[in-house]
Amino acid sequence: MPPVAIGATLPSRLTGRRRWLAGAALGAAALALPGCVRRPDLVRLACIDPLTGPAADVGRNSLRTWQFLSERLGAEANPAGLRFQVAGFDNKGSPQESLHALRAAIDQGFRVILQGNGSGVAATLAAAIERHNERFPERGVVFLNYAAMDPALTRERCSFWHFRIDPDTAMKTQAMATFLAQDTPWRRVALFNQNYAHGQQVSSWFRRKVDELGGGLQVVSDDLHPAFVMRDYIPWVRRLQASGAQVLVTGNWGVDLLRLIEAMQSEGLDMPVFGYYTHLSGVPTLLASGKRTMPVLQVGASHTNQPGPLAPLMQAFRARFRDDLVVTSAYDGLVLLAQAMARAGSSSATDLARQMSGMTFDGFDGPVTLRSGDHQLQKGLYINRWQRTDSVHPFGAEGTDHTFAPVRHFDGVAVSQPAQCGMVRR
């Protein structure tokens, strides 16, 4: 049985002479003329992510974030007054289940797909959407990837229908390696990652950046492990202690990161951890439970005390859900969609994709561009440090007295990578 869309509703009727992505389109219709939207439309988005299983906490936080921000997107970011409705489709973290979810979403009339947890899933969805749009252009689908970071998705596997709205692994490893080489005394690095597309790419891209940068950085160990299978990390932590490494770099997330940190705390290992996802659900609470403040760094497009338009939204999210709003790329994704739809004034997913391709807009952290050559968002990155809250950084992660505070920012130019995509444009 295909996954059920949580909270999905079908429009009771369609109005207006021209439908806004009608039926095949993104929800209840209204009159649309080229370049404008005359009155508010309901835009329905399908979020395909794990809502059960070992990655469910992360998937549910992601879904809640998209739903919450879709309710709160202000007039400045959404001048046409579009109304967004986000429904969750449980893929259980499986590429095969994701295909079932995609089919169910398309059958229910969704034409914008959201996904972020798992690069293997993202690659499967992108390929399936490419095939679907070739066969059924009148029911075309666009795919917003908000967190699946494999650079191949905007390189050799790039697609006109796929848009990544968060910096990818190549950009993040550029920032990580540069920070380590320039701003720390650590030179001997251990790599430890999940053995699937994302973890493999963290390993290979970090090594590549070390070779490019020089600066004396050396990878002394590089291990991959089955994702969401390992339970006892203590033997590996003991090997890490004996490796001579000075810092651990990991792209792990979910229970794999929680179990890794638990093992390090159990063994009393205070080695600095430099990660992608140390801010995700459960990790800050675990870090704060330790007897000492564990030396942790995180690379990301935002931080716990993010200023600007996200600041009041992050506080409201905490108050409502007792959880942190960490999927900040959802804000940029909704602004992108709202402005592209207002400009397209058409019932064609092709027209929407053409508008998003190359668009520059005001994201939560300033102007950003979704590069037309590969559909990779060009955006800056922060290096954040786990520390106690203070007068400058008063909001704690997950309600603790610790926070991720920015210690360095790389602008989009500093982390941008060359476009290497032979995209077939429509």
What does this structure look like?
This protein is α/β, with parallel strands linked by helices and 426 residues long. It has helices at residues 56-72, 95-107, 119-135, 169-183, 197-213, 234-242, 255-266, 283-288, 310-321, 329-344, 349-356, 412-415, and strands at 32-33, 36-37, 42-49, 83-90, 112-115, 142-145, 162-164, 188-194, 218-225, 247-250, 273-275, 296-300, 360-363, 366-370, 377-378, 381-388, 402-410. It has two domains: 32-167 and 307-378, 3-Layer(aba) Sandwich (Rossmann fold); 170-300 and 380-415, Response regulator (Rossmann fold). It contains twelve helices and 17 strands. The chain has a seven-stranded mixed β-sheet with strand order 9-8-10-11-12-16-17. The two termini are 34 Å apart. Residues 1-40 have low confidence and may be disordered.
Descriptive key words:
single chain, 426 residues, alpha/beta, Rossmann fold, 2 domains, 12 helices, 17 strands, globular
* CATH fold description of the largest domain: Rossmann fold
Task: List the domain count as a whole number.
Answer: 2
Helix and strand succession? EEEHEHEHEEHEHEHEHEHEHHHEEEEEH
Please, how many helices? 12
- C-alpha termini separation: 34 Å
Please give the CATH architecture of the largest domain. 3-Layer(aba) Sandwich
Share of helix, binned: 25-40%
